[in-house]
Write a structure and sequence with these properties.
Elements lengths: L1 H20 L6 H17 L3 H35 L5 H32 L2 H26 L9
Length: 156
C-alpha cells in the first residue's frame, strides 16, 4: 500500500514536471503548484483511484480560484493606481465588487466541497482543508526564512 501511495505521488510529480517544462520551468507559481500537489497527496494518503478522480476536480477548482483572485487583484490594483481620480460612486462600486468576490469565492468553495465529498471520505475532505492551510503556512515559513537577514556572529 505504501508503494502504491509513493507511485501516485511520483506519477503526479512527473506529470506536473512535464506540464511545467513545456511552459516555463522557471515559473515560481508552477513550482509551487507541484509542491502543493505532493504535499496534499502525502497528507491525504490518496489511493490511486481517489487520486485519478480527485486531481482533475481539484485542479479545476484551484484554477477557478486563481482566476477569481486575478480578477479581484486587477480591479484593486487599478483602483490603487487611480484612486485620486476615482469618484465616490466608482469607489462604492469597487467596494461592492470586493464583497461580491468574497461571495463568489464562498459559492465556488461550496460547489467543489460537494464534489470532493463524492470522491473522498469525509475525513479526507477535512484533511484536504487542513492540508491547504498547512501548505500556506509552509510557504509563508519558506518566504520568511528566505527573506530573513543572514546572521553574522559578531562575537568572533
Amino acid at each position: 500500500m505504501k508503494t502504491a501511495k509513493f507511485l501516485v505521488i511520483v506519477f503526479f510529480l512527473f506529470l506536473q514536471f512535464f506540464y511545467v517544462s513545456g511552459q516555463n520551468p522557471n515559473n515560481r507559481r508552477e513550482r509551487i503548484k507541484i509542491q502543493k500537489i505532493a504535499f496534499i497527496t502525502s497528507k491525504l494518503q490518496l489511493t490511486p483511484e481517489e487520486a485519478q478522480q480527485f486531481w482533475p476536480v481539484y485542479n479545476e477548482f484551484d484554477n477557478k480560484i486563481e482566476n477569481l483572485n486575478k480578477e479581484k487583484n486587477k480591479e484593486l490594483r487599478n483602483y490603487v493606481l487611480n484612486k485620486d481620480n476615482i469618484s465616490d460612486s466608482e469607489s462604492v462600486k469597487v467596494a461592492d465588487d470586493f464583497i461580491q468576490y468574497g461571495i463568489k469565492l464562498a459559492n465556488l468553495k461550496q460547489e467543489y466541497h460537494l464534489q470532493f465529498k463524492k470522491i473522498l471520505t469525509a475525513k479526507k475532505v477535512v484533511s484536504l482543508y487542513m492540508a491547504e492551510g498547512q501548505f500556506k503556512q509552509y510557504l509563508i515559513k519558506q518566504i520568511r526564512n528566505k527573506n530573513a537577514p543572514k546572521r553574522r556572529d559578531n562575537f568572533r
